[in-house]
């Protein structure tokens, strides 16, 4: 999940996500009014994430607003 309950440790389990990208997700989430992420494509707004990285992590993500697996 990419929500408030997901911590840096959890993000490090995603492919292509190391400490720097995980920290960028946390910073972005804290700076943007909730929910910061509604779909996997919203990660494209985070520094260090582009379309290729989003495509690699999307199958591992679910979003609380929909309960569905991200495309």
**Proportion of residues in helical segments:** 25-40%
* Main β sheet profile: none
Mean pLDDT value: 77
Q: Treating each run of at least 4 consecutive H or I residues as one helix, how many helices?
A: 3
Question: Any descriptors?
Answer:
71 residues, mainly alpha, disordered C terminus
Topology:
Layout: H1 8-11, H2 19-31, H3 51-57
Describe the 3D structure.
This protein is an all-alpha fold and 71 residues long. It has helices spanning 8-11, 19-31, 51-57. The chain contains 3 helices and no strands.
Short summary of the structure?
Helices cover 34% and strands 0% of the residues. The protein has 71 residues and is mostly helical.
């Amino acid at each position: 999940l990419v929500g408030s309950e997901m911590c840096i440790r959890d993000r490090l389990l995603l492919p292509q996500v190391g400490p720097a990208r995980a920290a960028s997700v946390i910073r972005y989430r804290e700076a943007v009014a909730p929910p910061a992420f509604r779909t996997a494509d919203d990660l494209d707004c985070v520094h260090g994430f582009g379309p290729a990285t989003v495509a690699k992590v999307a199958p591992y993500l679910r979003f609380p607003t929909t309960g569905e697996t991200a495309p």
